[in-house]
Amino acid sequence: MSRFSCSVVAIVALIAVSCSPLEISSRTRRVFLGGIATVTSSSGWMIENAKADTYSSLVPTGGKGIFQPYAEIVEGWSIPSPLSTKLGSSRILATSLEPLQQVNPFASQELYYPNFLFGSWNVTTTLKEKLYPFGRGFSPSLSLIEGSPRNREEKVGDSASFQLHFFSMLADTAPSNQITVNLGLGVPETKIIADRAFNAMSMSRGYRQLTPVEDVDWDYRKDPTRLTFRFGAAPLAEDMRPLGQRRCEVYLTARQSETSEDGTIFCSSERSRTIMLAPGAVVATDQETTTEYRQVDEDTVKAISRIAVYLTPNPNSREGVLWQQVGGKAVAFFDYEWSMKRERTEFILNDDDSMSTVVRRCVRTPKDVVQCG
Question: So where are the chain's domains?
Answer without folding.
Answer: 5-28+80-344
